[in-house]
Amino acid sequence: MWTPVGRGRWHGRALTVWAAAAAHRGLLEPRPTPTREAAAKSRTLDRLYSSADRKVTPEKIDLSRFSVENIRNFSIIAHVDHGKSTLADRLLELTGTIDKTKNNKQVLDKLQVERERGITVKAQTASLFYNCEGKQYLLNLIDTPGHVDFSYEVSRSLSACQGVLLVVDANEGIQAQTVANFFLAFEAQLSIIPVINKVDLKNADPERVEKQIEKVFDIPSDECIKISAKLGTNVERVLQAVIERIPPPKVHRKNPFKALVFDSTFDQYRGVIANVALFDGVVSKGDKIVSAHTKKTYEVNEVGVLNPNEQPAHKLYAGQVGYLIAGMKDVTEAQIGDTLYLHKQPVEPLPGFKSAKPMVFAGMYPIDQSEYNNLKSAVEKLTINDSSVTVHRDSSLALGAGWRLGFLGLLHMEVFNQRLEQEYNASVILTTPTVPYKAVLSSAKLIKEYREKEITIINPAQFPDKSKVTEYLEPVVLGTIITPDEYTGKVMMLCQARRAVQKNMMYIDQNRVMLKYLFPLNEIVVDFYDSLKSLSSGYASFDYEDAGYQTAELVKMDILLNGNPVEELVTIVHKDKAHSVGKAICERLKDSLPRQLFEIAIQAAVGSKIIARETVKAYRKNVLAKCYGGDITRKMKLLKRQAEGKKKLRKIGNIEVPKDAFIKVLKTQCDK
Ligand SMILES: Nc1nc2c(ncn2[C@@H]2O[C@H](COP(=O)(O)OP(=O)(O)OP(=O)(O)O)[C@@H](O)[C@H]2O)c(=O)[nH]1
């Protein structure tokens, strides 16, 4: 942990330019004030995950007694809030993994950000020991996030599993992320057990949900298990189904050791803790292992299972899911998707994972440049745990050296920033998110410079001029919306206003419609979800998947101060939105620029065409105005302070622009 110096007046504030705007618009759930219940939950979790509990217990588990036939590896997948973590709590209790107490609420949501927001952002593994009909089973459960921004966690988790519990809320029924998660499991050829949860709710209609499951997923309704995870009703039946319907892993213990790293975390004392699924062989402390990715050799210091805390074991055997510590200290050594094997016993590496495709990019800068190195180390460590973030170095005249980060969505970006703050005590400035546009180049000079014809633009400052390109492309996504049919008209109008093209429409039951639309990504990243929720009284759900690129009429918009362009405020916009976006930026800049000795013209321009303008009138701030009488030392102090303040200004032409002004304006672009 490190404490940044010079955090000044931003200390303690979530200083993301975007986040402030997003919270203002209600894009993000406000961070709730801790309730008594939350405090009690937090205490329970602190107890569960306190350092004392993490201490290595002298008694190691002997996992050799679990033959491959008695192992089941499964994930719990569902739409947001349908009850995955609550079901995981009951499964942990039923198997005696944790004591049954009233405070067991979403026990596997270990991160502070998860507890505060009440959502899972990180998949969590727990090994459960379960006796059934005289046999002892080892059940490896992975609780996954429901939100689309974290679906990379789901797909990685599935690689360690042979089956899933597909949880569906008995009142809400199938939602957009239910469909997306079902297909992830289906394509991975996993056994799918449908679980209808919350049957205790007054409005629960499990029979209707059964029919939806049959219609949309072609799963016979008699395969559905109806439960209340909250009350524990019928949960034992879920465990039995896991044993009966999910096959044991297909592995060979006699073959040389081969394991997939499907997740990893960084511990400042022990280095990288890799979550591994063993495909072949056995591994134990003292073994020399090799990373297929780096070809580096390590000695294994510890192996074990998560129960749900780390519980060291003598050995891990093929078919099991556990953790492994081998003194990997560097971020480059801890690749998620890597294959580990024994020294001198090389194996064919496992396919690994497709790298995550960032949907939005934003600049990240330390609040104070002296914090750059500390922030760099924090970002590196956090990206070990969240490998879906992409990092490129970047710099800005106003904000100094920093990075351009790629995220899977805006919630992902906000959660990453919150984790930086909470887990690494780092406050940062995040700039406006932008989607990755592309340009097909026609200029031979540019093609030579970039060494390719089609370039991806993740920073608006790199946008090539129209005269040098054949066409611009914008990313598109295939969106799934599920809505009660009384809102269908309004939903369709919203989609049209966002330049979306309808691809499909299907009734999933008598009064619920599933719509498929092709959306330009930049039309949905900021506030689409909010608008959809508000026009459907909260009933419509939305999920999307990458659908490539389409030609788009994009323009680069400059912001000029007395004719001089401001590099930080260059924006790429669709031609039709340029005027409204430009006007909003000019207005915000007018409000945040201090008056100066001369008039300032603020203009938004596309090429040589001015599309919006505001004016800041001339004025000189007289810092001595309040100093009556002749106290010369006080006057000198005030003049000195004014001079120091000016050092924090950036000069554009002869205009002094404080850093604050940039931050406020970057916010506007999110508010549009
Ligand atoms: N009435 C009732 N409420 C339930 C039941 N199961 C879960 N809930 C509630 O539903 C809410 C969401 O539950 P979670 O377990 O956090 O849902 P989740 O699917 O893990 O949520 P994400 O991880 O954010 O996707 C919580 O308020 C739970 O108390 C149930 O069987 N009955």
UniProtKB/TrEMBL annotation:
Catalytic activity from the UniProt record:
GTP + H2O = GDP + phosphate + H(+)
In what residue span(s) does the Tr-type G domain sit? 69-250
Please verify whether the record's keywords include Membrane.
Answer: yes
Question: Which Gene3D superfamilies did the record assign?
Answer: 3.30.70.240, Elongation factor 4, C-terminal domain, Elongation Factor G (Translational Gtpase), domain 3, P-loop containing nucleotide triphosphate hydrolases, Translation factors
**Transmembrane helix among keywords:** no
Q: Which GO terms describe its biological process?
A: positive regulation of translation; translation
Q: What domain of life does the native source organism fall in?
A: Eukaryota
One GO cellular component term, please give it.
mitochondrial inner membrane
Q: Which PROSITE patterns match?
A: G_TR_1, G_TR_2
Membrane topology per the entry is: Peripheral membrane protein
Q: Which residues bind GTP?
A: 78-85, 143-147, 197-200
Q: Which UniProt keywords are given for this protein, alphabetically ordered?
A: GTP-binding, Hydrolase, Membrane, Mitochondrion, Mitochondrion inner membrane, Nucleotide-binding, Protein biosynthesis
Protein location: Mitochondrion inner membrane
Q: Which PANTHER family does the annotation name?
A: TRANSLATION FACTOR GUF1, MITOCHONDRIAL (PTHR43512:SF7), TRANSLATION FACTOR GUF1-RELATED (PTHR43512)
Q: Which family does it belong to?
A: Belongs to the GTP-binding elongation factor family. LepA subfamily. Belongs to the TRAFAC class translation factor GTPase superfamily. Classic translation factor GTPase family. LepA subfamily.
Q: What does this protein do?
A: Promotes mitochondrial protein synthesis. May act as a fidelity factor of the translation reaction, by catalyzing a one-codon backward translocation of tRNAs on improperly translocated ribosomes. Binds to mitochondrial ribosomes in a GTP-dependent manner.
Name this protein carries in UniProt = Translation factor GUF1, mitochondrial isoform X1
Q: From what organism does this protein derive?
A: Mustela putorius furo (European domestic ferret)
Q: What is the name of the gene encoding this protein? A: GUF1
